[in-house]
Design a protein that fits this description.
46% of the residues lie in helices and 12% in strands. The chain is α/β, with parallel strands linked by helices. The chain has two domains: 2-176, Ferritin (Up-down Bundle); 179-474, 3-Layer(aba) Sandwich (Rossmann fold). The termini are far apart.
Length: 522
């Protein structure tokens, strides 16, 4: 367990990168188990550690200050802390980690927690006692996880466990490839969307900001939204979180992910999905963040031709891209904004009426910004992707009136390779893109940058057949920021060229002389 001890030192010190050490050690324990199975084993235990630590911290606080409330579940629920029965507490599992019955004890702990916490019913994994799971591996994994945030403060513990959970999710997504993309959107892509939309609560109406994701995966959009708010002097609970997910296993991951972060959320599941059984039909959100599955052909659109959501046209039955865009627009509040990840084809396709729907969306002035992303950002696909930013009202007073305008950003050259197969956007990249968007929104110091960004009118988009590919509009990158008059630069270029021609002729003569010498001597 040398790696585990090293990881424990990093975790206790809180150093950056401890998550990677933790995952390396945990992955070693996996043996021959498939990542898709092991994911639930490891994440379930991290979740159990989190809620047990939160409970124990609150329990100690009550014993010190209000002993009679220490065994009252209401005292815990008031602070969004789950009640953990004695047989489910981490200390009990850790004490029995070396027993051959540890799998059974973990299953019983999960069942006990679900029994007293209705919001977790059906969420927690309960297959630790199955024969395929090695009891020694489970014991070692418990020992490893026990070191997370050992001796840290209550708030620090929650943060560290949240970071570990989130890092593990990303690593498992990478291991699972295409299947991993079904539950995980790369953090740098989510951060671009969140930094651009700025999900703040509504100060005028003095209400929470409503955030919605109709295909929420493991809940990464919500975690980043809350993190953004806290980084800007907000606090947990100022955003009302709503989501829907059709994959039951992924829905369970989302519920656990948000609980680890202490985020209260209304996340719905049904197997029919957001198109055919919209769980939140009356919701009108302030902010929508979504990464729908790309180019889905079997979404059942032929059964929804008369749906009220198709404001800009009936989406083709063979591709759900414009169904997602219109579903999202339907759920936007009067002043709501949305960021959506889609395949690049959505910006230019004219098949099956998609071009006409895109035209109507542009004429309806609901498209705010289009971003072409660099390749290799996603675990699940090599299909080039883009970001659509939608706005219900471009003259709502929060920003300048942008009626009839769309901002185009070509970000394809941004990002660095994180490993052999996947690219990531850096903090600087994210800041560059979001700053351009905010300057354009506010009208402060915004300037078109050749090859990168440009503000375009509806008339110009019409001239391009309502295609929304940024490369069509931003032009070529400027290779010279020199303010020297063109005539002077042109003369200097001619002089340089003449010198290079002379050098070329001299070199040519020298080569001919050498060749002649070789022939003579030969």
């Amino acid at each position: 367990m040398a790696n585990g001890n090293d990881a424990q030192k990093n975790v206790n010190g809180g150093n950056l990168g401890f998550e990677a050490e933790m995952f390396k050690a945990a992955d070693k324990l996996r043996g021959n188990m498939e990542p898709s199975d092991y994911k639930h084993v490891a994440l379930g235990l991290i979740f159990l550690k989190h809620i047990s630590d939160s409970f124990e911290a609150k329990h100690a606080e009550l014993l010190a200050n209000y002993p009679e409330g220490a065994e009252d579940p209401d005292e815990y629920s008031a602070e969004n802390v789950f009640w953990v029965p004695k047989e489910a507490r981490w200390s009990h599992l850790q004490a029995n980690a070396k027993q051959t019955t540890i799998g059974k004890l973990i299953d019983e702990a999960m069942l006990a927690i679900e029994k007293v916490n209705p919001s977790l019913k059906g969420v927690l994994p309960k297959e630790y006692a199955r024969p395929a799971l090695n009891a020694v591996m489970l014991g070692e994994l418990i020992d490893l996880i026990s070191g997370i945030a050992l001796g840290a403060t209550k708030d620090r513990t929650k943060d560290l466990l949240g970071r570990v959970y989130e890092y593990f999710l990303g690593q498992f997504a990478g291991s699972e490839g295409k299947r991993g993309g079904e539950f995980y959107t790369p953090g740098s892509v989510v951060r671009v969307m969140v930094e651009m939309l700025e999900p703040f609560p509504d100060p005028e109406r003095k209400i929470q900001g409503r955030v919605y994701d109709p295909c929420c995966g493991s809940g990464g959009m919500f975690v980043q939204a809350e993190r953004f708010l806290e980084a800007h002097d907000g606090r947990l609970g100022q955003l009302a979180i709503y989501g829907q997910e059709s994959n039951y296993v992924t829905w369970r991951l989302a519920k656990m992910n948000l609980a680890v972060r202490g985020i209260d959320a209304d996340i719905r599941w049904n197997s029919e999905g957001s198109f055919h059984k919209d769980e939140l039909p009356d919701l009108r959100a302030d902010f929508i963040l979504a990464n729908p599955p790309f180019n889905i052909s079997d979404w059942g659109g032929d059964r929804l031709k008369e749906d009220v959501r198709w404001q800009f046209g009936i989406p083709p039955a063979g591709n759900a891209n414009f169904a997602w865009l219109q579903h999202i627009l339907h759920h936007l509040g009067p002043n709501g904004t949305a960021g959506v990840v889609l395949a690049n084809g959505s910006m230019s396709s004219t098949q099956s009426g998609e071009g006409e729907i895109r035209k109507r969306m542009i004429e309806g002035d609901v498209v705010d910004c289009m971003i072409a992303l660099p390749g290799q950002l996603f675990y699940s696909t090599q299909i080039p992707a883009c970001l659509w930013f939608l706005a219900r009202n471009k003259k709502n007073g929060r920003f300048r009136d942008r009626t009839g305008e769309v901002l185009f950003i070509d970000a394809r050259k941004l990002g660095q390779m994180a490993d052999r197969t996947r690219r990531e956007l850096s903090d600087e990249d994210i800041e560059t893109v979001s700053n351009v968007y905010h300057c354009w929104h506010q009208g402060n110091d915004y300037k078109d940058v050749p090859g990168f960004c440009r503000s375009v009118t509806q008339t110009e988009m019409e001239g391009h057949g309502f295609i929304l590919t940024p490369g069509r509009y931003v032009g070529a990158e400027s290779v010279d920021d020199d303010d020297t008059p063109f005539t002077e630069r042109f003369e200097a270029l001619k002089t340089t060229l003449a010198i290079q021609f002379n050098e070329g002729r001299a070199l040519e003569s020298r080569i001919e002389e050498l060749l002649a010498g070789i022939i003579t001597n030969g």
